[in-house]
Design a protein that fits this description.
It is built from no helices and eleven strands. With about 120 residues, the protein is mainly beta. It is globular, with a radius of gyration of 13 Å.
Length: about 120
């Protein structure tokens, strides 16, 4: 079992930055690939970024490539999402997720989910 708790969301102006954190419980965090997904009001949950268990491989949605960076610190059981040059269309609830089967860009490929943190970008 892995429990995930996101933090770092909030209100920011367009062009600003935020860093999301996801703290994981359990001793096996380093064996899980991690991902960030988001869901805007009235829309389906979508992939944002993923990282392999070692942190050596990362994946990004085209919409965030070059602006967002995913990273992890296995010693702290934490995964991060650095978000720069934020746009109003980035407004959503951001979810952290863990997969025992490797990085996935599909929500159904993830095994554990956090409850999410809200990011609001004003224009």
């Amino acid at each position: 079992q892995v429990q995930l708790v996101e933090s770092g969301g909030g209100l920011v102006q367009a062009g600003g930055s935020l860093r999301l954190s996801c703290a994981a419980s359990g001793r096996t965090f380093s064996s899980y690939a991690m991902g960030w997904f988001r869901q805007a009001p009235g829309k389906e949950r979508e992939f944002v970024a993923a990282i392999s268990w070692s942190g050596g491989t990362t994946y990004y949605a085209d919409s965030v490539k070059g602006r967002f960076t995913i990273s992890r610190d296995n010693a702290k059981n934490t995964v991060y999402l650095q978000m720069n040059s934020l746009k109003p269309e980035d407004t959503a609830v951001y979810y952290c997720a863990a997969s025992a089967r490797g990085p996935s860009t599909r929500a159904y490929g993830m095994d554990y989910w956090g409850k999410g943190t809200l990011v609001t970008v004003s224009s």
